[in-house]
């Protein structure tokens, strides 16, 4: 997870764990949902959770592009000297776009490389987050 | 009768009537989105959480049943208090940002825009196993602001709210001292014709009294038990305890209702009610009250009569509606007349919520009396269904909810004189359930000696267009665009809130998956919100988004 824009510098890049579920929706389209968790360090250490739901368009050669709506939730890991909104947790909506390339799978197991951008509707400025990583996938027989 | 309508016109010379027509009932209907769901004027967080995806069609309030016991707290309604038995076995979660609360007051701090109100609601209702089922619900509107935070902390004596124990941070979740945080669970049993449920609710509610600036935090605990045998006999008992965390005030309310349906078709119900209030509260005295009621819902051919008559030691209420309705494949015509008289504000709880009145039991001394006529007709003209309605109404001694400067509470008072008006609506609709559109035009006039003092002056004109489309893959989209002329909310304030004419927009998106077991929904409300308050002392009207996920069990 790579904080960008106003978040860049405030938080350090951190490893992220994502659990997702996808189901066939129509020809060449999958519906997907995912939960992501990151422990962010930086100016304020926080728990960062993202829930998203959207559609994945399948292209040739294992390439797919996805768009999703998301709910972002952040909460401080330590009490602050000055009371802050995210002390007790704060949520915000956002949108995500993702491009992925799935490697050929074997025995229903596979790997997928993904690059994702998130825009969160924070105020006064929107926040941006980049995500890059590898998904381990399992397809039902 | 209507079969003779070979060439019916859309002109409706009708008299019509519906149910509650007090000025605040007008607010209720607008607030509750009954008249024109897509152009609600005021929505509290309760309404948004409870009805994020409202029906497009106006509801028929003419035969709405009496709502039974008033379960509101300080006039406020909460989904968690009312929505135990939805009839659906599912697990669900709703999360909203900017769900806002036009009713819930915000402490003013400088020129900054109000903070948003993230709302969270979760619920569970299990399928029955051996006659038993369980249910639970959680609801919290999390509202953080620098002004609120410091003021609330001071009111509590600056406690350490980072404690892991809810009792020490006054919320089930988070450390923001939210306006309310409620959670509850219960068990239900159903064996043959005998049914019983018992539920327990626990949580916290902040109350802000705008004129005095007083902030009060209440700890609420509530037990609600219901038992019934078939449709013959039912008993509902509730015990609600409110303890003020910020001062020694407290109150314990026990009330209930025993109902007997002597007729097999349940067309009549008789019963008794009781209410015992103990404890100490600044505006409330201890009282005990018992009463009796009769409810009717009779249909004979094209005629129907519905009503309820309630007499208590401390109050009374009477409402009756007589209606006639006929229809063919091509046309429908209905007329009704309704009248009522009451000195009690419950049963019209949304009005109380908007007014944030004093505690349980406050009521004016003079009855509010209303008379309402209603005529409704619909006509199929090829692919188009046209509808028209006309509603003249009259209210004598309408109520208002002014602030009492001495206590900071809103106490209902009776206005002298009367207020009357006519509501009319024309609508055309075409399409099916999966795709179509509807457009409507509404006109309201309001006059009378009390019309300059009543709490709401609705828009004179409003127009709405709604379209919807769905596909075989379970995706459905609905969007609505409305325009209304200016309107006023007074609530007894010296500076009434006036809102100019303008548009409103709403959009809904829903996707079902896994054979309709999973339902994902999004509601975007008030898309052109002006970020200003619509109610005196109320919160800002802002664009709101609410997403929900439900999984059928």
Q: Care to give the gist of this entry?
A:
The complex is a heterodimer of chains A (141) and B (553). Helices cover 0% and strands 64% of the residues of chain A.
Task: Explain the overall architecture.
The complex is a heterodimer of chains A (141) and B (553). With 141 residues, chain A is mainly β. Chain A is built from no helices and eight strands. In chain A, strands 1-8-7-6-5-4-3-2 form an eight-stranded antiparallel β-sheet, with no helix packed on it. Chain A is elongated and about 55 Å long. Chain A has strands at residues 2-4, 16-26, 29-40, 46-58, 63-76, 90-102, 109-120, 127-138. With 553 residues, chain B is mainly beta. In chain B, 7% of the residues lie in helices and 49% in strands. Chain B has six helices and 29 strands. Chain B has helices spanning 23-31, 45-50, 79-82, 146-155, 166-169, 349-355, and strands at residues 90-97, 119-125, 132-141, 180-191, 194-209, 214-229, 233-244, 250-260, 268-280, 287-300, 303-312, 316-327, 331-342, 368-381, 384-396, 399-400, 413-414, 418-431, 435-447, 456-457, 461-470, 475-484, 487-489, 497-499, 502-513, 518-525, 532-533, 540-541, 544-552. In chain B, the strands form four sheets. Chain B has a 22-stranded antiparallel beta barrel. Chain B has a three-stranded antiparallel β-sheet with strand order 20-23-24. In chain B, a hairpin with a 3-residue loop joins β18 and β19 (435-447). Chain B is globular. Residues 1-39, 58-65 and 347-352 of chain B have low confidence and may be disordered. Chains A and B meet through β2, β5 and β6 of A and α4 and β29 of B.
């Amino acid at each position: 997870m790579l904080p960008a824009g106003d978040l860049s510098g405030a938080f350090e890049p951190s490893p992220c764990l994502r659990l997702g579920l996808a189901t066939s929706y129509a020809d060449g389209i999958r519906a997907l949902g995912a939960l992501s968790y990151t422990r962010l360090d930086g100016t304020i250490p926080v728990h960062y959770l993202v829930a998203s739901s959207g559609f994945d368009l399948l292209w040739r050669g294992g390439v797919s592009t996805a768009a999703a709506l998301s709910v972002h939730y952040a909460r401080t890991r330590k009490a602050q000297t000055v009371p802050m909104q995210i002390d007790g947790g704060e949520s915000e909506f956002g949108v995500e776009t993702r491009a992925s390339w799935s490697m050929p799978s074997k025995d229903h197991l596979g790997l997928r490389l993904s690059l994702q951008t998130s825009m969160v509707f924070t105020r006064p400025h929107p926040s941006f987050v980049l995500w890059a990583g590898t998904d381990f996938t399992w397809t039902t027989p | 009768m209507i079969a003779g309508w070979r060439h019916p016109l859309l002109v409706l010379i009708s008299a019509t009537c519906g149910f509650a027509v007090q000025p605040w009932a007008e607010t209720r209907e607008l607030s509750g989105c009954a008249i024109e769901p897509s152009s609600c004027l005021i929505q509290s967080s309760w309404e948004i959480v409870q009805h994020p995806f409202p029906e497009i069609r106006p509801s028929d309030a003419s035969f709405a049943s009496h709502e039974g016991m008033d379960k509101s707290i300080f006039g406020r309604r909460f989904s968690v208090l009312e929505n135990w038995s939805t009839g659906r076995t599912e697990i669900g979660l709703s999360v909203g940002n900017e769900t806002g609360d036009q009713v819930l007051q915000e402490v003013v701090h400088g020129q900054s825009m109000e903070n948003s109100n993230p709302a969270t609601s979760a619920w569970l209702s299990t399928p029955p196993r051996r006659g038993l089922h369980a249910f639970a619900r959680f609801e919290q509107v999390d509202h953080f602001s620098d002004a609120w935070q410091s003021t609330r902390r001071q009111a509590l004596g600056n406690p350490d709210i980072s404690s892991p124990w809810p009792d020490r941070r006054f919320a089930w979740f988070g450390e923001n001292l939210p306006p309310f945080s409620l959670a509850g669970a219960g068990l239900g049993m159903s064996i043959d014709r005998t049914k019983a449920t018992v539920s327990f609710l626990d949580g916290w509610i902040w109350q802000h009294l705008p004129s005095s600036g007083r902030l009060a935090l209440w700890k609420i605990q509530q037990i609600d038990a219901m038992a019934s045998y078939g449709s013959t006999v039912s008993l509902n008992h509730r015990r609600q305890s409110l303890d003020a965390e910020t001062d020694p005030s407290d109150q314990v309310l026990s009330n209930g209702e025993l109902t007997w349906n002597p007729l097999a078709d349940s067309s009549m119900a008789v019963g008794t009610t009781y209410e015992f209030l103990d404890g100490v509260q600044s505006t409330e005295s201890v009282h005990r009250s018992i009463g009796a009621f009769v409810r009717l819902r009779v249909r004979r051919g094209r005629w129907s009569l519905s009503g309820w008559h309630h007499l208590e030691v401390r109050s009374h209420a009477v409402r009756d509606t007589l209606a006639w309705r006929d229809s063919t494949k091509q046309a429908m015509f209905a007329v009704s007349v309704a009248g009522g008289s009451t000195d009690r504000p419950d049963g019209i709880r949304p009005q109380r919520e908007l007014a944030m009145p004093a505690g349980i039991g406050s009521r004016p001394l003079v009855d509010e009396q209303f008379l309402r006529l209603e005529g409704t007709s619909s006509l199929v003209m090829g692919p188009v269904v046209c509808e028209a309605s006309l509603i003249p109404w009259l209210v004598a001694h309408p109520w208002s909810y002014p602030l009492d400067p001495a206590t900071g509470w809103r106490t209902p008072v009776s206005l002298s004189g009367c207020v009357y008006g006519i509501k009319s609506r024309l609508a055309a609709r075409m399409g099916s359930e999966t795709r179509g559109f509807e457009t409507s035009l509404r006109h309201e006039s309001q006059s009378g000696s009390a019309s300059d003092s009543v709490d709401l002056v609705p828009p004179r004109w409003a127009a709405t267009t709604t379209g919807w489309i769905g596909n075989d893959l379970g995706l459905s989209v609905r969007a609505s665009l409305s325009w209304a002329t200016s309107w006023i909310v007074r609530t007894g304030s010296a500076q009434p809130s006036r809102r100019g004419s303008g548009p409103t927009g709403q959009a809904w998106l829903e996707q079902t998956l896994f054979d309709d077991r999973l339902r994902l929904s999004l509601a975007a409300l008030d898309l052109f919100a002006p970020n200003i308050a619509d109610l005196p002392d109320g919160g800002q009207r802002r664009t709101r988004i609410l997403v929900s996920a439900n999984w059928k069990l």
